[in-house]
Amino acid sequence: MHQGLYVVHIAAEMAPVAKVGGLGDVVAGLGKALQRRGHLVEIILPKYDCMQYDRVRDLRALDTVVESYFDGKLYKNKIWIGTVEGLPVHFIEPQHPSKFFWRGQFYGEKDDFKRFSYFSRAALELLLQSGKKPDIIHCHDWQTAFVAPLYWDLYAPKGLDSARICFTCHNFEYQGTSSASDLGSCGLDVNQLNRPDRMQDHSSGDRINPVKGAIIFSNIVTTVSPTYAQEVRTSEGGKGLHSTLNSNSKKFIGILNGIDTDSWNPATDPFLKAQFNAKDLQGKEENKYALRKQLGLSSAESRRPLVGCITRLVPQKGVHLIRHAIYRTLELGGQFVLLGSSPVPHIQREFEGIEQQFKSHDHVRLLLKYDEALSHSIYAASDMFIIPSIFEPCGLTQMIAMRYGSIPIARKTGGLNDSVFDIDDDTIPTQFQNGFTFQTADEQGLNYALERALNHYKKDEEKWMRLMEKVMSIDFSWASSATQYEELYTRSVARARASPNRT
């Protein structure tokens, strides 16, 4: 094993202590996988009041106080350290009158731009003042995109110059744009950066785009699947950043996320009625029976197919297709279970209406909430899983479903296109065929895949069992993604050492 690298992740989320979406899973999953490969990995997070403190081990405050600049003054930051999932984490608690991370929620505040540009600078200040010399500083999404320009403009000149910067964008929908003057608060030079070839947003001359800045100022830029990396280089997929990505395409790559195969493991999952694995599928039946009983669904026919869906009900996830799938599954003689809720009031109301309609129905149940334990039970009980996303940077649902022997029915987009391969597609080698896919985001497209899946299930039980065994044996762990990151890091560090004066 070559000499390990020293990697610092600066992020707004990390599972399980501060998790809103997939970003939190990536920081923890990639961090653990790199640590297993012999690298020194540390994480820097804001110290939110609403973190799951019970998941942090040995949390303690350091004596040293780190001062960082904001709005023309220096502010003190109290630094805490602890261990999360075996990884060392530094938590930054700003002593700032705005109580940036004392708001009862992670995002969605009017001053998010200020909160996270403050945090990005404080994180670099922590590295500088503690004399740390990471090989790689890895920042994520718009919230810590500020790290890239801050590093090259302010911190490399101060002597924190050992690092290469890697930036990962987990979803190009969210770019954190703000009025140009807001960028000055963290000490960046607005006049220098508010230019079309730097951080100026395409929408207007006085808007600044943190994600654009990170693409331009980072040494490595990644996103969460190869197909999504292609999609965002087109005008409709790139949300205004396609030309920036294309002119920086040499350093831009898509790497498929993994899942945490320790917590998503049907053989050891404590939430399940019965544990099972690819060699012993008996437990899958027991979980199906238990879930039906728990939700009051009919168990009259064990071979009635159960279709699962776990999602945030937002337009990105193909809400109209999910709604259609409920009724179509029923017509085709299946059962349907949906777990998820919507932050969009009219969508939430619509699904509450459907929930009422099927309240005491034998074959359909909607659970409009977030429920960790129930999600595990649904993955384990369902025969197939529906993921009809309009766009999907990576998607973890399809990977988790397969791990639990549930066959994905997915639209060919983003990471779904890189992980679900149609069993009726002759151009795909048999060993990779693992689900049912469709191309167009409409009812016909969905019907085509759904009907084939249900027919397949009903027609040949033996063949279906073999398909379940196959999908449960696919390796969706972080191991291969971490290897790709390791190669990118190593090459970038080697290039820097070969020509020290080149940024």
UniProtKB/TrEMBL annotation:
Swiss-Prot/TrEMBL keywords: Glycosyltransferase, Starch biosynthesis, Transferase, Transit peptide
Swiss-Prot/TrEMBL catalytic activity: [(1->4)-alpha-D-glucosyl](n) + ADP-alpha-D-glucose = [(1->4)-alpha-D-glucosyl](n+1) + ADP + H(+)
Enzyme class: transferase
Keyword Transferase applies: yes
Gene3D superfamilies listed in its UniProt record: Glycogen Phosphorylase B
Similarity field: Belongs to the glycosyltransferase 1 family. Bacterial/plant glycogen synthase subfamily.
GO molecular function, one term: alpha-1,4-glucan glucosyltransferase (ADP-glucose donor) activity
Protein's UniProt name: starch synthase
Taxonomic classification: Eukaryota, Viridiplantae, Streptophyta, Embryophyta, Tracheophyta
HAMAP family: Glycogen_synth (MF_00484)
Pathway linked to the protein: Glycan biosynthesis; starch biosynthesis
Coiled coil: none
Residue intervals of the Starch synthase catalytic domain: 7-246
EC number, UniProt record: 2.4.1.21
GO biological process: starch biosynthetic process
NCBIfam families: glgA (TIGR02095), PRK00654.2-4 (NF001905)
Stretch forming the signal peptide: none
